[in-house]
Write a structure and sequence with these properties.
The chain has 201 residues and is an all-beta fold. Helix content is 0%, strand content 39%.
C-alpha cells in the first residue's frame, strides 16, 4: 500500500508542530470497545523510542492511570499502544517499520478487553507486553496529535483522516482487510474525524 494517498492531511515538521484539543468525552475511551485509525506518512528525522502520534499523554511526566497513546518506536522499527496504570504502562508492541516515508493505514481496536493492531489491513503479532487491557482509558487530559509531552519529542510526517470510533471495534481480530484507498468516513459511533485537509483540520 505505498501509493501516494492524500485527500489532504496535517503535516508536522518536527520542530514544534502539533495539534491539541481540550479534554472531551470523544477521546476519553473508558472501558468500552473502540477503534482508532488513520493514514500516516513519516517524514525524515524521527528519533527515539516513543514518538507519540496521538493520545492523551501530554506534559504529564508521571503514569496517571487512564492516559493512553499510540506511536512509533523508531529505534527498533516498531509501533506501540500504551496505557498508564498508575505505576507504569501496559504496552503491547508490534514489529513493523512505518517510518520509511511511505503511506500506511494504521488501525488499533480494543475488543472485549484486548487491543489489536493492523497495518495496511494486515493484523500484526504482538511482541511486547500483554494486549489484555481492560481498565479504563479516561483522564482529564487534553488530546494531542504529533507531540509526546512526556518525553518532549515532536513528530515529522503527515497524519491524514484520523478517526476515533467509540463503542465499536470496526476491524475484527483474525481477519485481514483491504486497506481504505480514500478518506475515512463517519461510520456509526464515530466521535472524532479530523485531519482530512491541509487547509482545515
Amino acid at each position: 500500500y505505498n501509493e501516494s494517498f492524500s485527500t489532504g492531511g496535517v503535516t508536522f515538521d518536527g520542530t514544534g508542530d502539533y495539534l491539541s484539543m481540550a479534554d472531551n468525552a470523544a477521546f476519553q475511551l473508558g472501558t468500552d470497545d473502540w477503534t482508532i485509525d488513520f493514514f500516516w506518512k513519516s517524514g525524515s528525522g524521527n528519533t527515539g523510542n516513543y514518538q507519540q502520534l496521538l493520545g492523551t499523554q501530554t506534559s504529564d511526566t508521571g503514569t496517571t492511570a487512564g492516559i493512553w497513546r499510540v506511536g512509533t518506536r523508531t529505534g527498533s522499527n516498531q509501533i506501540y499502544f500504551s496505557r498508564a496504570d498508575g505505576s507504569g504502562f501496559e504496552e503491547p508492541v508490534w514489529n513493523i517499520n512505518v517510518n520509511d516515508e511511505a503511506w500506511y493505514h494504521i488501525a488499533f481496536t480494543r475488543a472485549s478487553g484486548y487491543v489489536y493492531c493492523w497495518v495496511d489491513g494486515v493484523e500484526q503479532t504482538n511482541v511486547g507486553e500483554s494486549n489484555n487491557i481492560t481498565a479504563t482509558m479516561t483522564t482529564s487530559n487534553a488530546f494531542w496529535v504529533g507531540y509526546n509531552g512526556r518525553d518532549g519529542t515532536y513528530n515529522t510526517g503527515t497524519v491524514s483522516s484520523l478517526r476515533i470510533v467509540k463503542g465499536t471495534a470496526v476491524y475484527t481480530t483474525g481477519t485481514d482487510f483491504l486497506p481504505p484507498s480514500a478518506a475515512l468516513t463517519n461510520v456509526t459511533n464515530t466521535v472524532l474525524l479530523c485531519c482530512q485537509s491541509d487547509s482545515s483540520t
